[in-house]
Input
Amino acid sequence: MKIMIVGGGGREHAIAWAVAKSPKCDKLYAAPGNAGIAELAECVDISVMDADSLVAFAKEKEIDFVIVAPDDPLAAGVADAFLDAGIKTFGPRKNAAIIEASKAFSKDLMKKYDIPSAAYETFEDADAALAYLETQEAPYVLKADGLALGKGVLICQTLEEAKDGIKEIMIDKKFGDAGNKVVIEEFMTGREVSVLCFSDGKTILPMTSAQDHKRAGDGDTGLNTGGMGTFSPSPFYTDEVQKFCEENVYQRTIDAMAAEGREFKGVLFCGLMLTPKGPRVLEFNARFGDPEAQVVIPRLKNDIVEVMEACADGTLDKINLEFEDNAAVCVMLASDGYPVSYKKGFEIKGLENFAGKDDYFVFHSGTKFNEEGKVVTNGGRVLGVTALGNTLVEARANAYKATELIDFENKYMRHDIGKAIDEK
Output
């Protein structure tokens, strides 16, 4: 069958790598793709937000199956455009993607259906939000309601910081319209774990666990980023935690969305905090995480196309989801200065070292071909270097060895991805 992936980052490269292996895939397209995806698919220069052009291209090429991967097009209804055109699609409709697109919606849903999460209040007026802060104790958690590239959450240690945060989000509009509404949330402590789940609207199948590192600097210092690295599985996601979440989070959320007339088909990303009082939901996303996909997908035993088709067809109950009994670690190679300001266009050397390997990979996040046909940097997060191992400690050592195989000017990375593994 002919398959098209909408997107052009590291998550999409990981998906493309798995789709290209499927015996079901005869021809693969990506819109817009990147320099890494171009090795696996025919890349077409169409924006992920241009629904009309995407659908027209899919019709012209007689695409059988479309995978809409990033958050913005899902929130904008790009999956709806394909589905309404009669094209089988993996990814939730706009009315279900709201679980990520609006923090206020997801918090209200969790309250209504008794899904464990932090206490919160929602505000559309900055003065009311500032007045509420005066009644709360530090630290403070502020969340821009809408999509903000994974950076719309501020953890403020003092009241002054929190007041400045409200100003940034609601008045200065640092995150644009995403800050028209703000959620002020109870601060929770504990280990963070991410669990991605396939869903067909009725059945939900949790994948293996993962753990992300959001801060730019070693020791979880610096600004929030889209993710500087991740590992899978999380040693903190015990059988007891899994049982609790299966009973109180995963199925309950899919049932709640169905009850609200918002059938969720695709990947539900559950960000969890393992608090002293038990697991609580930090956030929901409506797609594969990035860079979580880069460690979860390489461990998947199943044919990913078969699983995604089952999600689209409502037959996920027929799938036995399996993962390899191994571990994976991904270290992001970024442009120095990310996430604030950085230079692009530097040639990337050493990519050929990853050709034909089946225990380590390089997933392109921000790359492109220059006029001479060389692969150059084209973003803040450039490459996700992923390695497998029999254990997390082994996978971590392999990943850091693999980062030495690649070089580009202003290359930057954290040196403590998965350090918690060594402490476990």
